[in-house]
Amino acid sequence: MTTEALLLSPSDLRNELPGSNPARLLKLLYEEGDLSRADLARAVGLTKATVSSLIAEMIEQGLVIETRHRTVDRPGRPAVDLNIDYDNWTVIAVDLSADHELRGALVDLKGTVYACESMPTGGALGGAALRMAIELVDRLRERADRRILGIGICAPGIVDANGRVLASHNLDWVGIPLQKEIEQHTGLPTCVANDANAAALAERSLQGRDTDLMLVKIGYGVGAGIIANGKLILGSHFAAGEIGHVAIGEGVGPLCVCGRRGCLEATLSLPRLEARLQSASSDDERVDVLSDAGHRLGIALAPLVGSLGVEAVIVTGLPETYTAPMLSAVKDALRPRITEELLESLDLRTSRLGDDIMFQGAVILVLGAVLGIP
Could you tell me the residue range of the domain that residue 315 belongs to? Predict the structure, then answer.
């Protein structure tokens, strides 16, 4: 990192930080909290003088602050603890996966949402949906009261490593260079990822980096984010976890937005699921609808759980009243399809992160791209 400019822009930080010694120090502070210069020097194998010089630059750039002086029982200057300057920065987080609105928020670097914006979509698709997404970002930029580190966008569908939405049936997007469009419009570092993948990263942050997990996101569509050996699995065509268009049965069932029949999304996406529930005439029928949905999800998950051996399957996006009968049916569907040992050790539950999981995932995307953490 350099001090040639008094204050580096977020784009400059993205170009200079990832993979550097300052990024290693920031990663330690992010993971461990308050640490002194001596603590950091020991942890990364640099001299204290080198660390002190790097920390001075990062304090000047507003990345790090001194938090407290340690109490000591011996003569000499007390060590001063350091931490990331969380209050100096914000991330613009955008979730494009809801069926009736686009959601956005200003989020601090700890993942706490402190301002929200939403825009009803009115069924907008294609170019109209893109223009609405850009307008939502602009609204949040106007409300930002801190330095903006970057923009994180969670989009439904298949998204490549460059933030291009290769295919999103729910937004009617094909080959949309969303990351490039937003960066050119705002001048800010922008990260675009599949919504379920972003949610999986948020869940990994809560669970711990060594946990293998699969996060199933149910909303306007259905998808999964998979973490194996601590890493997000994308697949060679960036379509890993696209379980929404896995057909259950022999091409029978409701017509899916992709044009096929029998897709999981055609019965399990929230709009389709809620329509089925509204047509039910009794509580027992409603339970049957939820159990059928859970059964179909369990059939789709069984080969993935059995082959990957994930420790946890975490479901997000469902109203609380749907979860008990659905998760019970998922487990019943898994039972004859995977080993008893794997089933008994599987942590099958809903996410504890609630409605903000997408925004927290967006923060993690930006932290990784701009600061090289976590």
Answer: 208-351
